[in-house]
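Query structure, 345 tokens:
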């Protein structure tokens, strides 16, 4: 699961996914990059240092920051569903939901890195990931990935309802089993990957309500549409990395930028009416309507600026892409926060 996603981590690692993903893309960093532990260290110091390295690598495998965004969007869905049901939004079921979603999201990220360990090794941004750098064995990655997905799905089925557990499991299967391998064969992988990336708020809603309803579909649509300008900005920033790894992103396949700019613009325009759906469905009030309209226009303005990549220098185009990426990861949390604060029953 990603998103969706993937806000703060998307800017720092620029890894599109579902997530829900985060400013200034840099390669993954980890404690193990410091080299071997000096032999003059005491046994206790070596143990503590090695433990920190293992813990850091495990967090990298689970993409903790990406998972945090996934959990945040799932929480938004649960909160809105709870408001509609007239129940407390902070309760045991909420914590059970977020735990299950976090496990499945982390497990999906682990399996994603299992399948992409060779391509990750070819990209500067991802070459120091634990599996790509061979610091962690393949078996370990498969074990914790599968274990987290199965445990999280079963936990959701047991503590929320069967539909929530099933949807979460299907999201993981789509992300790991369909989106991940397709990235090397077609640019449509971005479109397909947007489906699991948009699922967390819908999953949160079903955990609270036990059914897929129109407000949940609206939340799904918001996350789905939001991802495209976000992903196009990421792809434009790293075409060499993607090309080196054989990942077929639009800037790699069509480097003139026209298809990249067009796709970003189409979805940024769609973002405005789609973001107003919760108001039209009476899930949110006038404050949300006004905020969504303003935020949508700002998102569109930055996407229009991004469209200049077709006729400006490489350095300028990167500036526009980075600006859009920053705005995209500010836009989504702000929109969801206003939606939750102005939720109506």
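Result returned for the query:
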């Amino acid at each position: 699961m990603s998103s969706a996603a993937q806000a703060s981590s998307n800017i720092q690692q620029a890894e599109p996914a579902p997530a829900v993903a985060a400013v200034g893309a840099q390669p993954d960093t980890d404690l193990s990059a410091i080299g071997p532990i000096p032999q003059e260290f005491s046994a206790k110091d070596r143990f503590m240092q090695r433990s920190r390295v293992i813990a850091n690598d495990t967090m990298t495998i689970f993409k903790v920051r990406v998972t945090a965004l996934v959990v945040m969007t799932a929480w938004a869905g649960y909160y809105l569903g709870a408001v509609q049901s007239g129940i407390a939004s902070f309760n045991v079921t909420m914590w059970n939901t977020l735990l299950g979603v976090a496990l499945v999201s982390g497990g999906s990220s682990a399996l994603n890195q299992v399948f992409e360990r060779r391509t990750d090794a070819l990209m500067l941004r991802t070459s120091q990931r634990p599996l790509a750098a061979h610091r962690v064995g393949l078996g370990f990655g498969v074990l914790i990935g599968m274990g987290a997905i199965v445990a999280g799905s079963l936990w959701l089925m047991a503590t929320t309802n069967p539909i929530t557990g099933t949807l979460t499991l299907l999201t993981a299967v789509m992300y790991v089993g369909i989106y991940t391998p397709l990235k090397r064969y077609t640019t449509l992988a971005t479109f397909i990957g947007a489906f699991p990336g948009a699922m967390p708020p819908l999953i949160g809603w079903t955990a609270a309500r036990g059914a897929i309803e129109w407000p949940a579909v609206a939340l799904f649509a918001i996350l789905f549409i939001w991802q495209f300008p976000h992903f196009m900005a990421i792809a434009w920033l790293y075409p060499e990395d993607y090309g080196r790894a054989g990942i077929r992103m639009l800037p790699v396949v069509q480097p003139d930028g026209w298809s990249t700019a067009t796709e970003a613009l189409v979805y940024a325009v769609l973002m405005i009416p789609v973001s107003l759906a919760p108001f039209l469905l009476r899930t949110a009030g006038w404050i949300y309507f006004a905020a969504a309209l303003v935020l949508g226009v700002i998102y569109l303005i930055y996407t229009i600026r991004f469209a200049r990549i077709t006729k400006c220098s490489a350095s300028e185009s990167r500036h526009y892409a980075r600006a859009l990426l920053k705005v995209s990861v500010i836009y989504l949390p702000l929109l969801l926060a206003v939606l939750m604060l102005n939720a109506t029953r």
